[in-house]
Design goal:
By secondary structure, chain A is mainly α. Chain A has twelve helices and no strands. Chain A is 44% helix and 0% strand. The chains are: A mainly alpha, B mainly alpha.
Chain lengths: 263, 565
């Protein structure tokens, strides 16, 4: 009988081990607890965007529906051929984009996109106010211009009505949206070859679109020392890590798309 | 803003004295194990009395003593399991009191009266059980036997009442009544209002059915153990039959469990969309893939057991060629059901796939395909039972051929409806598609009911092709019963995690926030480790109980008669 007992024991353990293994090989997603962001009055646009992305993909669980294209409109990728949310929000609402996004988050029932159901919870009740604004900044950065400022972080809808969207345009540092002008103005061409001209201190812009995706280009601009291109190790640390502050989200996006197209 | 401020204030206030420390696995781990193991034993001691009284009734009405013996043997397991349930219940309460004092204080203030009633009912239930078991031989004939059966019914009544009360507490944590907020004082919450919350009755019904499923599978495993340990053919025949009955109860009640699950899921969605989405499409969405893997194995093991069992039934050989096709259907259904809806993909991968859905997954991983797969698997399993049941019978009614044809048409119709709505689901809006699952479920349920009634009439007075050779089962069939028991137990742990995890970082959803170091709901890998620990603890204790069951009494058995199923 001891052999039978042993067989039963081994079978039981094997079945348990199999189920445990199955649960381990699938994606490991943890439900995070909303954290206080502690964004101060000196918060930069980059910090706001980064914080917003963290909330969007983390505690806000926004990606559960936005991104699959079935429950809710895609926000980070194209939806209905209108581009990412920042771009289509500006296209549809202009300077009221900020108000629209705030309303969509805090009173989603009033902003249902045709073809979708009213299933979104009021994020104003799910997240602290500063996190709501951080998410708006992040959404604006996806192809639009970030107009959220530190002054908004404690602002509720009533205040918003009194302070229209156009307030505090973060991107007022420079007017141009032309990527070529921007590359020159921001001294990028001092180190990067473009159209066969310029010193090869950094990786050339020519053909960059075939080497890097738009996302990688964006990441390289915002965090140039995060991942140094092979062959350019001796120049690591040369490129300033301040372009996130120097560029508006729309300008950054214009440069990214321009470079990504250079194949 | 006000809510956020209060939430923050609460967080600060809660940092002191709200939580205790447990070495090694932490407070959450300790409560997790105590609650889950307690729940597993509770499910067993609530499930077994249900079919103990049914088999006793069959024995009384049919004047067949083997059913009475079976019922008593079921109940003997209860006596041992009952003390284990109480023991783990006490451990759970002590852990909650010492590790989550503030939360438990909140619950006690609202549910204090119901806790006293619970304890009172527990006493009554215990004494009823002891009278039921120890009075078996004394009250075995005439009116006394009916009185004894009445005790069994009462045992079920008390047990169900106890479960309903406890369900009120846990469902309050999931779905506190509207109007109860973080600012509400516990004294302001009405007891009945808190108990009868949105998910209370769906959980009650779901657990009632699940307990029968679970009890049946554990009893079948017990029978399998005794079968393998049997020294005589008589013993082997008895435990072979007992294993069959346990498995039959587990699988036949399991087939209706998804319908109770649908109801519970719908109530969760209606209570709070976000909670529903978190459960089905949020960080828990992959849990349902694991669930599909488990349930696929349940279907395969249950059918495998039946098909092997047909080898001991004279006349079953004429149905054996069909089993390979049924196996094929089950495997295909399992693959479809286990296909994930979406993949975690980077933007580059999404671009390469042409969207967030992989083209292959977007066809098989959607609810239309999954609902179709699971309903076809249910119909296939039902067909296995039908063939098993008919194996050694020769209908004598003059409408036998017509009846069989009608049964076949009903099965084909049900399968047709399931497939039709499954395919149509690809061409309609999501809001319309959701309603299709109801038609599919209704078609399958109607088919099962209609065919069962027809089959009972059709086989009344049927000629026997020979008696079932109880006991002549290969040992591997019994291992299938062990797989079923382990899988059901693990599945119970998984579903417990799903139900509890959708509260996320709330002890009581929207009312008491979890501010402990364990507030984040863990990923499935960690949860699986905890579930496996709980299952191991439970099964080790159950093995001890089985051993005790063998020590307590050596049952005098005799081979069951043909058609005893």
């Amino acid at each position: 009988m001891w052999l039978t007992n042993l067989k039963i024991g081994i079978l039981g353990l094997a079945v348990i081990a199999f189920y445990t293994a199955v649960a381990h090989v699938i994606p490991q997603l943890e439900s995070e607890v909303p954290q206080d962001l502690a964004l101060g009055s000196d918060v930069t646009v980059d910090e706001l965007i980064a914080a917003g992305e963290g909330v969007f993909t983390g505690a806000g669980i926004c990606t559960t529906c936005h991104g699959l294209g079935t429950r809710a409109p895609n926000l980070r990728t194209d939806h209905a051929g209108l581009g990412t949310i920042g771009a289509r929000c500006v296209a549809a609402f202009g300077s009221d984009c900020r108000t629209y996004l705030y309303t969509s988050l805090t009173n989603p029932g009033d902003s249902i996109v045709p073809g979708f159901e009213n299933i979104m919870p009021n994020m104003g009740q799910q997240l602290p106010q500063d996190q709501v604004w951080a998410v708006i900044a992040y959404l604006q950065s996806l192809g639009g211009e970030v107009t959220v400022t530190a002054a908004d972080l404690s602002q509720e809808s009533a205040d918003l009505a009194a302070a229209p969207a156009a307030a505090a345009p973060v991107a007022a540092r420079t007017e141009t949206m032309d990527p070529r002008e921007l590359l020159t103005e921001k001294t990028c061409t001092v180190c990067h070859v473009i159209d066969g001209a310029g010193p090869p201190i950094g990786p050339p812009f020519d053909g960059i679109g075939s080497r890097l995706t738009a996302e990688k280009i964006r990441q390289s601009i915002l965090d140039p020392n995060g991942e140094v291109t092979e062959g350019y190790e001796q120049f690591a640390g040369t490129m300033p890590a301040t372009f996130g502050q120097q560029l508006s989200a729309a300008q950054l996006e214009a440069i990214v798309q321009f470079l990504a197209a250079r194949k | 803003m006000m809510t956020n401020a209060l939430s923050l204030a609460q967080t600060v206030a809660d940092t002191a004295g709200a939580y205790g420390h447990f070495p090694g696995i932490g407070a959450r781990g300790a409560v997790w194990i105590a609650a889950e193991v307690h729940l597993m034993f509770a499910a067993f001691v609530l499930g077994v009395p249900m079919f103990a009284v049914i088999t006793e009734l069959i024995g009384i009405v049919g004047k067949d003593s083997k059913y009475d013996r079976l019922s008593k043997e079921f109940t003997r397991l209860l006596v041992f399991a009952y003390s284990a349930t109480a023991l783990w219940g006490a451990v759970l309460v002590f852990f909650l009191t010492t590790l989550y004092p503030r939360f438990w204080g909140h619950m006690a203030q609202i549910f204090g009266l119901s806790m006293w009633i619970y304890v009172g009912l527990f006493f009554v239930e215990s004494f009823t059980l002891y009278m039921y078991y120890y009075g078996w031989e004394r009250w075995k004939a005439g009116r006394a036997k009916w009185m004894h059966w009445g005790l069994g019914v009462l045992l079920n009544v008390w047990g169900t009442a106890v479960m309903f009360i406890a369900n009120g507490w846990l469902t309050y944590m999931m779905s506190p009544p509207e109007g109860v907020t973080a600012e509400t004082l516990p004294a302001e919450v009405g007891l009945w209002n808190a108990l009868a919350n949105a998910t209370w009755m769906p959980i009650n019904i779901h657990r009632l059915i699940a307990n029968a499923v679970f009890g049946g599978s554990i009893v079948a495993a017990y029978a399998a153990y005794r079968f393998l340990a049997a020294r005589t053919d008589e013993e082997r025949a008895h435990y072979d039959w007992m294993g069959y009955v346990g498995n039959f109860i587990a699988i036949s009640t399991f087939i209706v469990l998804p319908f109770a699950g649908y109801w519970l899921g719908r109530e969760i969605y209606e209570y709070n969309q976000q909670m529903g989405i978190t459960m089905m499409g949020g960080f828990m969405s992959w849990l349902w893939i694991v669930q599909a893997v488990l349930i696929g194995i349940l279907f395969l093991a249950a059918n495998y057991y039946l098909w092997i069992g047909m080898a001991r039934i004279p006349g079953a050989e004429r149905f054996m060629p069909y089993t390979k096709w049924m196996l094929l259907i089950l495997v295909i259904g399992w693959i479809v059901w286990s296909t994930p809806h979406t993949m975690i993909a980077s933007r580059e991968e999404m671009a390469a796939m042409g969207g967030s859905h992989h083209p292959f997954l977007s066809v098989l991983g959607v609810m239309s395909a999954k609902n179709t797969a699971v309903n076809i698997m249910i119909l296939t399993t039902f067909l296995s039972f039908l063939l098993y049941r008919r194996a050694n019978k020769e209908p004598t009614v003059d409408w036998a051929k017509t009846g069989t044809l009608v049964e076949g048409i009903m099965l084909a119709l049900a399968a047709g409806v399931v497939v039709f709505y499954g395919v149509l689901g690809y061409f309609v809006e999501a809001s319309v598609r959701i309603g299709f699952s109801v038609y599919q479920v209704l078609a399958v349920l109607a088919c099962i009911l209609f065919v069962t009634v027809t089959d009972l009439s059709l086989l009344r007075g049927a000629k026997s092709r020979g008696a079932i050779r109880w006991g002549q089962m290969p040992a591997r069939s019994q291992y299938a019963l062990f797989v079923l028991a382990v899988t059901f137990t693990w599945l119970m742990g998984l579903m417990g995690f799903a139900r509890s995890g959708i509260r996320q970082h709330w002890h009581v959803w929207g009312v008491i926030r979890d501010t402990s170091e364990f507030a984040a709901t863990p990923a499935l890998g960690y949860a699986a480790n905890m579930i496996s620990v709980c299952v191991l603890v439970f099964l080790t204790l159950v093995a001890f109980i089985f051993w005790l069951g063998g020590l307590a009494e050596r049952v005098v058995t005799k081979p069951a008669t043909a058609g005893g199923s």
